[in-house]
Amino acid sequence: MSAATAPEPGALTTAGIPGGTRVPAVPILQPGEGPIPAAHYLPATPDTVLWGRLPCATDAPVLEISSGESVTIDTVSHEGILDDQGKDPAAYFAAHGVAADDVLVDAIEIAASVARDPFADGPHVVVGPVHVKDAHPGDLVKITVESLVPRVPYGVISNRHGKGALVGELPRGEHNVSVFAAVAERDGILHGTLPLVEGGDAVVSFPLAPFLGTMGVAVAGDERPHSVPPGPHGGNIDINLLIEGATLFLPVQVEGALAYIGDPHFAQGDGEVALTALEASLRATLRFEVIPADAARAAFGEVTGPLVRTPDYLVPTGMDPDLDAAMRACVRSSLALLGGRWGMDEHLAYAYLSAATDFDISQVVDIVSGVHARIREADFAGVPAVEPEALASAPEGDAA
């Protein structure tokens, strides 16, 4: 982007917004450009992505790594490339004041050349799959989020096709609504920005907390799952706690795990009520480790679905098309975790969850609703517990 007069300290800088100052909040990270922290780099190309479907056991890996190695992966947001937006990201973002050089070339290439059935497939672009050596069904693959860097200073929030929390109410009429949101910097912190009224200045701002909405492993069999509903394989879980420093544990379904990521978000509120978050492309650096089945059970008991770990919380999940059933599933997962990790009697664990644990709605818009619990590990600081021991890491110099 072209430079403009520097704003006053603490002021918002915006890109491509009526009334805004055209100053880049973040550099444009075209494929292969800018910092690539890991020893392995996986760009988003027609040969390394699926659009609208998730990998299954018969998909060939696009990369093979050892347990303990890190990979830097360029992800591409589906917003701006979908059919209802013209399937032409250069034209779509130009209409919002984005310069041609500031549109990602991999997004343009994917929109033009990757097959997708708009009536049968989901919207998400996923990168992978990655074969993790020595990962077998019954093990856990541990994915640690080492860094998440915005690739562009803008994103999109959409409410389309009569979907969202208010089905039949919004969007008004039959049209789809996609809201462009520029990224701005305020006191050294990146924010998403919105106007109060259509066409107005971007006076509303909210801090970014980037995460990947989709992180998963391949399912067994030869049928690729739809990209929207999450499940035991992970996929589109949309848990906004998966920011830098967090970890996701997933039960391995097939040999090599065949892991993948996508659906990059700059920010999302729990619930994701309009249908999408602030969707925008990220450069993600992730470390992949294999937790053998015996070590996984010793640390957590039986893990049958996605399990998140942050510096403060263990986060079991529950999923079901019915939100009430998803809540009940999350409670059961939480009880199993408390018993498996700390040996807590079921009735005492139930009481603990009621008194001390928050249950959050991950999302209510992805066919299968999600609920996740936040169990404070500090509450169990006085209780011995086994840590999940991974297979030996790659030799020094092989991992980032």
Automatic annotation (TrEMBL):
InterPro entries (UniProt xref): FmdA_AmdA (IPR004304)
Transmembrane annotation, as ranges: none
GO molecular function, one term: hydrolase activity, acting on carbon-nitrogen (but not peptide) bonds, in linear amides
Segments for region (Disordered): 1-28
Signal peptide feature range: none
Gene3D superfamilies, A to Z: Acetamidase/Formamidase-like domains (3.10.28.20)
Lineage: superkingdom: Bacteria
Name of protein: Formamidase
The organism of origin for this protein: Microbacterium testaceum (Aureobacterium testaceum)
